[in-house]
Amino acid sequence: MMKNRGIEDIRSLTNGPGRLTKALKITQKLNTTYVTNPNNKLIICKGKEKNFKICSSHRIGVTRDLRRKLRFFVKGNKFVSR
Q1: What percent of the chain has pLDDT over 90?
Q2: Is the N end or the C end of the chain the one with fewer CB atoms within 10 Å?
Q3: Dihedral, CA atoms, 69, 70, 74, 75, nearest 10 degrees?
Q4: Sign of the C-alpha dihedral, residues 23, 21, 62, 68?
Q5: Is residue 66 over pLDDT 90?
Q6: CA 45, CA 75: separation in Å to the nearest integer?
Q7: Per-residue pLDDT for 82 more than 80?
Q8: Mind giving me the DSSP string for 61-80?
Q9: What pLDDT is attached to residue 32?
Q10: Strand partners, 74
Q11: How far apart are the C-alpha atoms of 18 and 49, rounded to whole Å?
Q12: pLDDT, tens only, 5-21
């Protein structure tokens, strides 16, 4: 992932949607991919159960949809932007 991003600072590796997709080599070719289909190149797998809280906030740097909280993240995660 660090090679894909061309960085050495792990805190900047995935803090933001663009950085995350670049680190994981997710391109526009995967638009409309169903991540629940195990036959796709990109899937979401069940991991270890952990106790965490999902928070929401307004999107950063976006002037539209300000009334709706459309940004979701794990509370306290050091890889979340801002």
Answers
A1: 17
A2: C
A3: -20
A4: negative
A5: no
A6: 21
A7: no
A8: T--SSTTS--EEEETT-TTS
A9: 84
A10: 54
A11: 26
A12: 999 988 888 888 888 89
Structure tokens, 54 = 């999902």
Which residue carries 């909280």 as its tokens?
A: 69
The size of the chain, in residues, is 82
Structure tokens at 7: 């960085």
Q: What gap in Å lies between CA 65 and CA 57, rounded to an integer?
A: 11
User: What six digits make up the tokens of 9?
Assistant: 């600072």
The owner of tokens 């995967």 is 30
Beta-ladder partners of 68: none
Structure tokens at 2: 């660090």
37 residue type, one letter: N
Quote the tokens at residue 45. Answer: 């797998």
Tell me the C-alpha distance between 77 and 15, whole Å.
10
